Amino acid sequence: MQINRKRTINKGPEWIAVVNPNAGTRKVANDWSQISEALSRWSVHHAAIFTEKRGDAIELVKQQIVLGVRHFIAVGGDGTLNEVVNGIFGQGDVPTTD
């Protein structure tokens, strides 16, 4: 993958799904394949990253922002959404309006 000067990823996914497989009494782990298939049917070019423990989503989102990703989908519960938002607003490298 190449990162251009505008901090967008060339040939990479437009969206990153941050998936918490333990959310919903582990229901998300079973449902992710159907969710991914639906996103593909709707022409949403995406890839998934999976959390393993509390706080992972924050760090994973920060890493993806540095790589140029600007679009995220939180797949999990309230905690997953909270961590994704905190990852976006908690990093200091890229304006949240970018």
Features:
18% strand; alpha/beta; single chain; 44% helix; Rossmann fold; 98 residues; 3-stranded parallel sheet; globular; two-stranded antiparallel ribbon
Helix amount:
40-55%
Give me the CATH fold name. Answer: Rossmann fold
Tell me which CATH architecture applies here. Answer: 3-Layer(aba) Sandwich
* Order of adjacent strands in the largest pleated sheet: 4-3-5
Number of domains: 1
Rounded to an integer in angstroms, the radius of gyration calculated over CA atoms is 13 Å
Largest sheet: 3 strands, parallel
CATH class: Alpha Beta
Shape: globular
Query: What does the average pLDDT come to?
Result: 86
Corresponding CATH superfamily: Probable inorganic polyphosphate/atp-NAD kinase, domain 1
Order of helices and strands: EEEHEHEH
- Secondary-structure-derived class: alpha/beta
**Fraction in beta strands:** 15-25%
Q: What is the terminal separation in angstroms?
A: 20 Å
Q: Compute the number of strand runs.
A: 5
Low-confidence stretches: 1-10
Q: Count of helical segments? A: 3
